[in-house]
């Protein structure tokens, strides 16, 4: 939906970029909104026969832990499986920690083939490179200063 020719700030953008599906998640981050976005991402994966997903989180508000667990429950319901390779970026430190929590729980349940990163460059390298990029690269650099 557009207003004055510009996309609304609450919308997410999903684009096919040849080797991957690019997602820019905007606005507040409720479990219901995330479920709908996930369904659209899965539909794009099927449409383009591409299961590499690079997402950027631009959520505006911090999510309570209970809401994070709702996100976790929505992943398999939306159709995300381990055939989907997901590199998700959260540059905001608080958002990064929230997404790492979700990543850990999903991995422990065997529901997630992906990783959360602090930068798009790291996520892109992991997703399309050899898969060896570490999300801790930024942390290691900060610790050495």
Main CATH class: Alpha Beta
Spatially, the strands of the biggest sheet line up as: 3-4-5-6-7
Mean pLDDT: 81
User: Which sheet architecture does the biggest sheet show?
Assistant: 5 strands, mixed
**How much helicity do the residues have?**
40-55%
**Amino-to-carboxy terminus distance:** 45 Å
Q: How are the SSEs ordered, and which strands pair?
A:
Layout: E1 2-3, E2 6-7, E3 13-16, E4 21-27, H1 31-48, E5 52-59, H2 65-78, E6 85-89, H3 93-108, E7 113-117, H4 120-128, H5 137-143
Parallel strand pairs: 4-5, 5-6, 6-7
Antiparallel strand pairs: 1-2, 3-4
Helix pairs in contact: 1-2, 2-3
Keywords summarizing the entry:
145 residues, alpha/beta, Transcription Regulator spoIIAA, five-stranded mixed beta sheet, two-stranded antiparallel sheet, 5 helices, 7 strands, disordered N terminus, disordered C terminus
Question: What do you see in this structure?
Answer:
This protein has 145 residues and is α/β, with parallel strands linked by helices. The protein has helices at residues 31-48, 65-78, 93-108, 120-128, 137-143; strands spanning 2-3, 6-7, 13-16, 21-27, 52-59, 85-89, 113-117. A hairpin with a 4-residue loop joins β3 and β4 (21-27). It starts with a strand and ends with a helix.
């Amino acid at each position: 939906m557009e207003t004055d020719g510009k996309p609304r700030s609450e919308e997410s953008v999903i684009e096919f970029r040849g080797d991957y599906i690019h997602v820019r998640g905007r606005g507040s981050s409720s479990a219901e909104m995330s479920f709908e976005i996930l369904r659209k991402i899965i539909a794009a994966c099927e449409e383009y026969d591409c299961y590499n997903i690079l997402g950027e989180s631009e959520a505006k508000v911090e999510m309570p832990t209970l809401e994070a667990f709702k996100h976790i429950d929505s992943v398999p319901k939306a159709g995300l499986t381990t055939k989907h390779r997901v590199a998700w970026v959260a540059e905001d430190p608080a958002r990064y920690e929230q997404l790492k929590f979700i990543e850990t729980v999903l991995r422990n349940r065997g529901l997630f083939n992906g990783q959360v990163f602090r930068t798009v460059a790291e996520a892109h390298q992991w997703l399309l490179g050899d898969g060896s990029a570490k999300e801790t690269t930024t942390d290691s650099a900060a610790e050495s200063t």
